[in-house]
Amino acid sequence: MENKRIMIVEDDLNTAEMYKIKFENNDFKVLVSNNWLDALTKLVDFNPDIILLDIMMPSMNWFETLSAIKELTTTINAKIIICSNLSDKKDILKWFEIWADDYLVKANVTPTEIFERVKKLLKI
User: Model-level pTM?
Assistant: First the structure.
């Protein structure tokens, strides 16, 4: 897993730190952004293999953010896992239509389970 890069976009600092530790302990290079604007400005330079994206954050709405990331990721080929506590099936279908590779309900998964989903998406 060495040299794999994950961008964690999460405004809850405790949650972000918990994910960051899990991935760093497994040899990932990790970049944490606590808002979407920061993530969008760093996305291309960091060139993540995967983006763990919280969709309930201030500033841009999730649709604008996911659309912007989709545009940027045509050059970097990152997978996107949406992490949220929202579980409305209509919204989840919309996220997959726009371009999410996976969706996790944060309250229902541990950092280890998230790590396993990342490994599966990256075929590690």
Answer: 0.83
